[in-house]
Amino acid sequence: MRSGIITSLESTMNPPWRLILHPPAHGAWNMAVDEAILEACSGHAAPPTLRLYAWNPPCLSLGYAQPSSDVSTDALAARGWHLVRRPTGGRAILHTDELTYAVIAPAENPVVEGSVLESYRRIARALLASLNQLS
Length: 135
Fold this sequence. Notes:
By secondary structure, the protein is of the alpha/beta class. It has 4 helices and 6 strands.
């Protein structure tokens, strides 16, 4: 059976997309994988990619421009949580019991072209359609 999100995006999938499913991993490994996929996709050495993954142990990720001084590393360490920096912007996100997704594609790909809000809407619609197929 094909992934619902892949099916939902099929009409705009030229070139075809790659789906990567990873088990829970350390935050540093998760960010390194996302960066490697970004580099490969940017250079057209890899197809556009949807990556689904989780975090173990829990991890706080900071946006690329957020100062690390915003965070109490002692408080994180006391809980056994890790700290990483994302290659994307935004503020801190605590990753605990969740499924994370990364959509990585060249800027000219129809799924992500246009404004950030437009691409978020297309991706969110595909995710919702996929979840509806599961129910």
